Amino acid sequence: MSNAAYKEMWENLDLDLAAHDALLEVLGKFYGDIYLSQQGRLQGAEYLDFVLSEVHGLRIKELQDAKAQGRKIVGSFCVFVPEELTLAVDAVQVGLCAGADAGREAAERIVPRNTCALIKSFVGFKLAKLCPFTESCDLIVGETTCDGKKKTYEAFGEYVNMYVMEVPQQKNACDRDLLRSEMLRYKAELERLTGKTIGVAELRRGVEIVNAKRKAIQRLNALRVADPAPISGRDALLINQISFYDDPVRFTAKINELCDEMERRVARGEGVAPKGTPRLLLAGCPMAVPNWKLPYIVEGAGAVIVGEESCIGTRNIRDLVDETAVAEATTTEEIIDALVDRYMKIDCACFTPNTERLGNIAALAKDMKAQGVIHYSLLFCQPYTHETFKVEKALAQAGLPMLAIETDYSMEDVEQLKTRVQAFIETIEQ
Ligand code: BJ8
Questions:
Q1: I need a labelling partner for 253 at 20 to 30 A (CA). Which of 6, 151, 317, 430 fits?
Q2: From the CA of 261, how far away is ligand 1's center (Å)?
Q3: Is the beta carbon of 129 within 6 A of some atom in ligand 1?
């Protein structure tokens, strides 16, 4: 459908139509340059192109239709918000993290300038009336992870229906208890929001859907071990990004189809870049749509990205909820225990200490046959920037070179980044 066909819907959502049109135009051009210009893409990438072209159109229409049927829309900014519970009340969960500079000035009216670009972006999108996802939400769930986010939610809560979930900062028994009680509190909040009760069957179904989604991305990542790489890092990142806002059942089916195609490609020994192309792993802060700057630079410089150690990447899909425990459970509390066990494995830099992450990055780089790691921190992101030093040391011990990059969503440093990335790739090639 054309944008004109959605105009009424966007008007009803109180978007700033002129600014929104301008945003879609820039996004379309950016997507064309970064994605459609790629050689040797999989045929299944048509799904990605379609979802992206309809990101503020058809998908928002689907959300509106779901609302008309009485379903609720829940927005989130973090992989700690358990989609399994959201699905158990037949609500729709969408990710609201944003990856563009639009709205930055508006955001700086309510959050400090030295706040990371990801936070400023979701605040700015709301204040500048640019985000139909945020406007579609009945509830927005924040979480107490980094200081930037938790203080922002206080200000953001003046504009949206906000609920904040407490996330522990350590991994002792008392922290597990805290997360468990927070899952139960979130369950009660969802039941209050929807007037539904979550029973064993509903929660099992939620786990089934989310585990299937994670398994599809695990399958995709396993295929990326092949050399030549069967998919670009850009497309793999896009798949991870889309996993946060497309319908989970449709997403899983489409990604499994794409994996079938990748399997055939691997069997033929074909890929998106010649065999022997330098292989790199990206690690660090999440890259939300349309933050494709660094992958574009890296792959434009002649390397291929074979993994993303980030929440819009492996951190969100590495661990599944234990299906045996869920099958044997007779109460919702037992299933919640299985959820807590899974969510406590998340190695976000907001934890202290966060030593598992160091081993996990080295293991992932080894599994993916990466020859180097690019550690990516957003400017003003304290948790990930702090961990840069430890990650570099751990990777050096594992014999892997690392390049540390700190950047934001602006394009001002593109040339400088290109030079640094090229030099890093040359070192690897030598
Ligand atoms: S579990 S990584 S999704 S908190 S980049 S806003 S950390 S200052 S995003 Fe995250 Fe959950 Fe952790 Fe994952 Fe703060 Fe850093 Fe900004 Fe960040």
A1: 6
A2: 33
A3: no
- The residue count of the chain comes to 430
pTM: 0.98
Ligand 1 centroid vs 146 CA: distance in angstroms?
6
Residue 117 alpha carbon, nearest atom of ligand 1:
16
The answer, yes or no, to whether any atom of ligand 1 lies below 6 A from the CB of 384, is yes
Three state DSSP letters for 2-17 = CHHHHHHHHHHCCCCH
Mean pLDDT over residues 39-66, rounded? 97
Over residues 153-176, the pLDDT tens digits come to: 999 999 999 999 999 999 999 999
CATH level 3 topology of 206-318+349-429: Rossmann fold (3.40.50)
Domain boundaries, the chain: 206-318+349-429
Q: How many Å is the Cα radius of gyration of the chain?
A: 21
pLDDT digits (tens, 9 = 90+) for 256-286: 999 999 999 999 999 999 999 999 999 999 9
134: CB partners within 8 A, 6+ apart: 75, 96, 122, 125, 126, 140, 160
